[in-house]
Amino acid sequence: MIIGVPKEIKAQEHRVGLVPASVREFTAHGHKVLVESGAGAGINFMDADYEACGAEIARDAADIFKRADMIIKVKEPQAAECQMLREGQVLFTYLHLAADPAQAKGLIDSKCIAIAYETVTGAGGRGLPLLAPMSEIAGRLSIQVGGAYLLKHLGGRGRLIGGSPGVEPAKVVVLGGGVSGFHAAEMAVGMQANVVILEQNHDRIRELDKHFGNRARVIQASRDAIERYVLDADLVIGAVLIPGASAPKLVTRAMVKAMRPGSVLVDIAIDQGGCFETSRTTTHNDPVYRVDDVIHYCVANMPGAVPMTSAQALNNAVLPYALALADKGWKKALSDDVNLRAGLNVYNGQITHRGVAESLGMQFTEPVL
């Protein structure tokens, strides 16, 4: 199979679909890998590094999309890339279609086979193994950026996350105790913040309570609890995920208006539409805006800020699935692995993931492989 790795063109996205070590695995399996010139430069992988691992350097993205049987990326295809996709071509990347009807239309029109990292499930249908490493990084990063924007000269309240002897620390509220929420809480606890985690699932509440003990409070999420703790917070982390579907709006506009000036909201769920009613997508170039003097950080590709770490972590997770698609062909790979099959979002011009279809208000079609 011919594998294509184009350079990412989303604003301030420096990650790359395959690092040289992953290319070496593909070539060892007998596959040909085309890498766009400069694709890995953002994390200091030069064209020569890829050539040393057996890749062919392609002059531009058009050449990649024209020749490759499977495209491996990091972020969702931009409009220009959707136009280059062709019928029967496999696309393996993050898609986050629930909040992006324009991209969904582009993939449908292309008639490509679009497999989304974020809906591939783990053993027994539990967990999201290809989303988990980026959720871990986004969760950890959310406390770093949230703490930075609490600084007075950046417009925040002027409160130090960990406080000082005799002075109370910042109040950090984490909405959702999944992978990203857990890692956000771990970072906040490590920085000695006053941490509250709001979670809905009873089993998960018990797990979190057992893990954190008295280092963080784990509270049953309800409308009343969300409002009470959010209004009292210095920093709120939105970390709620419904696989394939739009994120629920847990923090209303009225709550934001009632928060203290200079408080900070970090919406990790923004690539699924966001879990704050006042959220709108931002970029690393212009990451924050204010609503009622509350700072909103809503960057859709947060792990792109630390591309050296996140590209390696993502490749570690993706490689076994990508090799299966290449070695077996996409139909057999999906037929053999029900968890990988859960990643199929678009096929033959149809939406083939129920959660995505429902979020977009489109027809769901059960794929026939």
What does it look like?
- With 369 residues, this protein is of the alpha/beta class.
- The chain folds into two domains: 2-120 and 307-360, Rossmann fold (3-Layer(aba) Sandwich); 132-305, NAD(P)-binding Rossmann-like Domain (Rossmann fold), CATH 3.40.50.720.
- Helices cover 36% and strands 16% of the residues.
- The protein is built from 14 helices and 15 strands.
- The chain has helices at 20-28, 47-52, 61-67, 79-84, 101-110, 132-149, 179-190, 202-212, 223-231, 253-258, 307-328, 330-336, 338-341, 354-360, and strands at residues 2-5, 32-36, 56-58, 70-72, 90-93, 113-116, 171-175, 194-199, 217-220, 235-238, 264-267, 288-291, 294-297, 344-347, 350-351.
- The strands form two sheets. An eight-stranded mixed beta sheet has the order 3-2-1-4-5-6-14-15, sandwiched between helices. The protein has a seven-stranded mixed beta sheet with strand order 9-8-7-10-11-13-12, sandwiched between helices.
- Helix 10 links the parallel strand 10 (235-238) and strand 11 (264-267).
- Helix 6 (132-149) packs across helix 7 (179-190) and helix 11 (307-328) packs across helix 12.
- It is globular and about 65 Å long.
- It starts with a strand and ends in a 9-residue tail after the last helix.
- The mean pLDDT is 96.
